[in-house]
Design goal:
Blueprint: H1 30-48, E1 60-65, H2 71-82, E2 86-90, H3 104-112, E3 117-122, H4 127-134, E4 139-144, H5 150-164, E5 171-175, H6 182-193, E6 197-201, H7 210-220, E7 224-227, E8 238-240, H8 252-258, H9 266-271, E9 277-279, H10 300-305, H11 307-319
Parallel strand pairs: 1-2, 1-3, 3-4, 5-6, 5-8, 6-7, 8-9
Helix pairs in contact: 1-5, 1-11, 2-11, 3-4, 5-6, 5-11
The structure holds N-carbamoyl-L-aspartate (NCD).
Residues 71-72, 143, 149, 152, 182-183, 242-243, 281-282 line the site of N-carbamoyl-L-aspartate.
């Protein structure tokens, strides 16, 4: 997939992120990820102090959302405003000229002339890379079809760091709709980068692609197991479970068959590793019943709150504030 593409005012100083697009997690070096995580901790401390930040004063971020979103759009907007910047954007494609037939390329060219950075969500895999080719300002991929969601993986990693006080040498079970969930396709690379072993747990039809598994094994030298049994996740340090991605199933009957395939309930957690943490990009459906919300293992609402400091870090490093 994508490169971190250099824009006219990009530079290679510092983290090397200034002026760059963020299309795929794979485009980030380990050093860059560590820089983002460190900057995220500074941002979290600033948020806790309620510090008034002006790093991105006079900068404008545009959110171009062609697919539904609650967390991603609002946390990006919150992050930009917390940094002193301004926000424009759309979240309902029916209010834009796309409905008149305008191409993505033209929409992006226009939005790029109104803003200093574009955050794009789109149903088509590859849309963010395409947009980056037409944009004079950096583009952040906030989800392209089933392909990727790199800033989600950054705050997933940040959550592991904050909860586990380490990033490496763990067993991570990734459970559920591994075929369609774009968060998985970024998260798996994030945990592999820090040398954690992965158990992909899914029914065969929704398993992680052979291509991704091979890529992870070849490039990161980690151990990968595949199974369809949730029991295999009991000894893990981390469980990551996205919802079944209803909108990506071609056959509604197939969705119904898998909708409640896995449930992380109290009974399961009582048999699991005492230090296990349960993560989800949210929204959650039946896979995470409310009965586990107050258990110490359930960190998904903490995780979602980390979206703001991590996106602040990403915006600050890309816009060079
Ligand atoms: C995810 C997405 O859009 O991929 N949402 C999010 O950004 N946290 C997960 C999902 O929709 O299941």
């Amino acid at each position: 997939m994508g490169r971190i593409v250099g824009k006219p005012n990009s530079s290679s100083s510092g983290s090397g992120l200034r002026g760059k697009d963020l299309i795929s997690f794979k485009d980030l070096s380990k050093g860059q990820v560590i820089s983002i995580l460190n900057e995220s901790e500074s941002m979290l401390r600033a948020l806790t102090r309620r510090a008034k930040l002006e790093y991105l004063e006079n900068r404008i971020m545009a959110t171009a959302f062609f697919e539904p979103s609650t967390r991603t759009r609002l946390s990006f907007e919150s992050a930009m405003q917390r940094l002193g910047g301004g926000v424009i954007g759309f979240s309902d494609v029916n209010t834009t000229s796309s409905v008149k037939g305008e191409s993505l390329a033209d929409t992006i060219r226009v939005v790029a002339s109104y803003a200093d950075i574009i955050v794009l969500r789109h149903p088509k895999a590859g849309a963010a890379l395409e947009a980056a080719e037409y944009s004079d300002v950096p583009v952040i991929n906030a989800g392209d079809g089933s392909a990727e969601h790199p800033t989600q993986a950054l705050y997933d990693l940040f959550t592991i760091k904050m909860q586990k006080r380490r990033l490496s040498g763990m067993s991570v079970a990734i459970v559920g709709d591994l075929k369609n969930a774009r968060t998985v396709h970024s998260f798996a690379y994030a945990v592999a980068m820090f040398k954690n072993n992965i158990k992909f747990i899914a029914p065969e039809q929704l398993q992680a692609s052979g291509e991704m598994v091979e890529d992870l094994e070849d490039n990161y030298g980690i151990e990968i197991e595949k199974s369809d049994s949730l029991d295999e996740a009991k000894e893990a340090d981390v469980i990551y479970i996205p919802r079944m991605q209803k909108e990506r199933f071609l056959d509604p009957e197939e969705y119904k068959r898998f909708a409640n395939y896995y449930t992380i309930n109290k009974k399961f957690l009582s048999k699991a590793n005492d230090d296990i943490i349960v993560m989800s990009p949210l929204p959650r459906l039946g896979e995470l019943p409310v009965e586990i919300d107050n258990l110490k293992s359930s960190v998904y609402f903490k995780q979602v709150a980390y979206g703001v400091p991590v996106r602040m870090a990403v915006l600050k490093l890309i816009l060079g504030g």
